[in-house]
Design goal:
Rossmann fold; ATP-NAD_kinase_N; 11-stranded antiparallel sheet; transferase; alpha+beta; Tumour Suppressor Smad4; single chain; kinase; nucleotide-binding; 4-stranded parallel sheet
Length: about 300
């Protein structure tokens, strides 16, 4: 019988499922389950005796667990990760085609395929950052800051709609920022609403911003939204609010690495905001296959 180690965030999403209930559900589907406290610094040693790690929670929970596994030295993880999405956006699970009820997802682990997943790395003069979904500058860090100060809606769909409506309100007046981009041996300079380096197709409130991104191809997707594309971006968000789930079509590049330097804008790595006073230039690259996720056949 395979042994699963459970990392659980009971505060994520709407289910409010207890750890005891999750353990019972996992064991009913043919696995032995043990748990680990998210404050436990010995996660790696626990996994030495497990067949895989189950992360039950939202994108922030997945990122928190992965951070303990790979940082500070971007170390490869020895066991596969199985995600039980239970957050608001669940972009990581959706990008990896992990869908269905919790029981359906757990059952799928018996025959799931291990998929290598890359990690993005951003290096400044002072430190290094990692990301699973995206690293971006401009509009989305602003959205994150605004949403922090708003009263959170009770259910998942209302929270997503609230974030989309807030984004729609920000787009018309958000000040463009200057950015210097070096890729493929050339330099691009301009004024942008957002610059994003994406490892997965989705980020933010379930927005398909890089539909061709593959988190296991050893590459990253660079997305540029210039000041002149303000109406195009607003139209895309309006469609999403109307329930039309279409990908964003914009200026994008498949890259191994990129250098970014910017002025008068904050950045983000996944759900963490990086103020401009903290960082304003980064060398960004992919770390191929540091993780393995269990994904449905």
């Amino acid at each position: 019988m395979k042994i699963a180690t459970l990392w659980h965030n009971p505060a994520a999403g709407d289910d409010g499922q207890s750890e005891k209930e999750l353990i019972a559900l996992i064991e009913q589907n043919g696995f032995q389950c043990r748990t680990i406290d998210e404050q436990d610094e010995a996660l790696k040693s626990h996994l030495a005796h497990s067949d895989f790690l189950v992360i039950a929670g939202g994108d922030g929970t997945v990122r928190g667990a992965v951070k303990k596994l790979i940082m500070p030295g971007f170390d490869p993880v020895s066991v596969p990760v199985a995600v039980l999405p239970a957050g608001t956006a669940n972009n990581i699970g959706t990008s990896l085609h992990i869908r269905g009820s919790q029981e359906e997802i757990i059952t799928s682990w018996q025959d799931a395929s291990p998929k290598p997943v890359d990690v993005g790395c951003g290096v400044s003069a002072q430190t290094s950052y990692f990301f699973l979904e995206s690293l971006g500058i401009g509009l989305f860090p602003k959205l994150m800051e605004v949403m922090k100060h708003k009263e959170e809606e009770e259910n998942r769909e209302d929270r997503l709609d609230d974030a989309l409506e807030t984004l729609q309100q920000l787009i018309p007046s958000f000040p463009a920022f200057h950015c210097t981009i070096r890729i493929h041996g050339r330099t691009i300079e301009g004024r942008f609403l957002m610059v994003a380096v994406m490892n997965m197709p989705m980020f933010g409130p379930n927005l398909y911003m890089a539909p061709n991104a593959d988190p296991g191809d050893g590459k990253l997707n660079l997305l540029l939204v210039s000041e002149s594309e303000r109406e195009h971006l607003a139209g895309f968000v309006a469609k999403r609010l109307a329930g039309i789930d279409v990908p964003f079509i914009g200026q994008s590049y498949l890259i191994d690495s990129v250098y970014l330097a910017w002025k008068q804008a904050d950045a983000h790595v996944d759900d963490e905001v990086l103020p401009q006073a903290q960082v304003s230039q980064l060398d960004i690259s992919a770390k191929p296959g540091l993780l393995t996720f269990l994904v449905p056949e």
